[in-house]
């Protein structure tokens, strides 16, 4: 495996996306969360002090590592009425899709799935909350999901629209990493209830990290591409003794 720590930092000179909202909107449900920026699967926690960088990690539960079957297309739609908070819903939708397209483009050929909008048969909904989720540790920007056969949500919170465009796209790059099956790089230390397996280089920088070390690196992409290539070819059936389980999307059934 490559052990390069070089980073391919995403930079954008384009203006940040910040759709204008209407004044009178009802309160949204506030969910309990742990950590800052990302609570996908209730997994996000601050990086423990004094701990060294660790391997790129894979989510697993129930005794297997979940990944997508080859040629998976994830169908999405915007949750009905989720854009009603904005004065120009169509413009807000277009801006959000541009952010997602930029994030997906940064993963490039390493992305193991494709995406297609489909209002009728969908695998996940894009949901834009009208209220933030914050506590003393900080605020959530977005949350996503891991591979399986169910239906899910990709949630965006208002706080994300207050970030720079670069930070907005990097947040979505991180969340797409979860959709591909990746966990936070420190998950095995602080997220004992959701086990992980190790695959890939031991790199200090990773998009699945937080803070100043959260960058999409060549190693992130090469390891993800290698993982899926080995799994799809049948060369890799387990990781450190934990079997790999491939899932079809909900819409593929």
From TrEMBL:
**InterPro entries annotated for this entry?**
MetalloPept_cat_dom_sf (IPR024079), Pept_M10_metallopeptidase (IPR001818)
Q: What is this protein called?
A: Peptidase M10 metallopeptidase domain-containing protein
Q: Which GO terms describe its biological process?
A: proteolysis
* SUPFAM superfamilies recorded: Metalloproteases ('zincins'), catalytic domain
Record the organism: Mortierella alpina
Q: Which domain of life is it from?
A: Eukaryota
UniProt entry keywords in alphabetical sequence? Hydrolase, Metal-binding, Protease, Zinc
**Key word Translocase present:** no
**Stretches assigned to the Peptidase M10 metallopeptidase domain:** 68-184
List the signal peptide residues. Answer: none
List the GO molecular function terms: metalloendopeptidase activity; zinc ion binding
Q: Name one GO cellular component term.
A: extracellular matrix
């Amino acid at each position: 495996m490559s052990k390069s720590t070089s980073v391919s930092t995403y930079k954008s000179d384009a203006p940040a996306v910040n759709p204008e909202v209407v004044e009178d909107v009802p309160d949204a449900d506030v969910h309990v969360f742990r950590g800052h920026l990302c609570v996908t699967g209730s997994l996000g926690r601050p990086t423990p002090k004094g701990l060294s960088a660790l391997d790129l990690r894979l989510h697993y539960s129930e005794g297997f590592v979940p990944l997508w079957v080859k040629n998976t297309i994830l169908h999405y739609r915007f949750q009905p009425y989720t854009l009603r908070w904005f004065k120009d819903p169509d413009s807000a939708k277009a801006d959000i899709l541009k952010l997602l397209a930029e994030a997906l483009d940064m993963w490039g050929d390493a992305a193991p799935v494709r995406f297609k909008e489909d209002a009728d048969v969908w695998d996940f909904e894009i949901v834009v909350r009208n209220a933030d989720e914050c506590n003393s540790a900080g605020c959530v920007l977005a949350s996503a999901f891991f591979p399986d056969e169910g239906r899910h949500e990709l949630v965006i919170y208002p706080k994300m629209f207050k970030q720079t465009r670069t930070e907005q796209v990097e947040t979505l790059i991180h969340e797409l990493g979860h959709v591909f099956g990746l966990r936070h790089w420190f998950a095995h230390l602080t997220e004992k209830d959701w086990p992980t397996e190790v695959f890939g280089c031991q790199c200090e920088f990773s998009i699945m990290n937080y803070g100043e070390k959260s960058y999409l690196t060549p190693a992130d992409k090469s390891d993800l591409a290698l993982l899926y290539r080995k799994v799809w070819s049948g060369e890799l059936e387990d990781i450190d003794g934990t079997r790999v389980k491939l899932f079809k999307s909900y819409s593929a059934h």
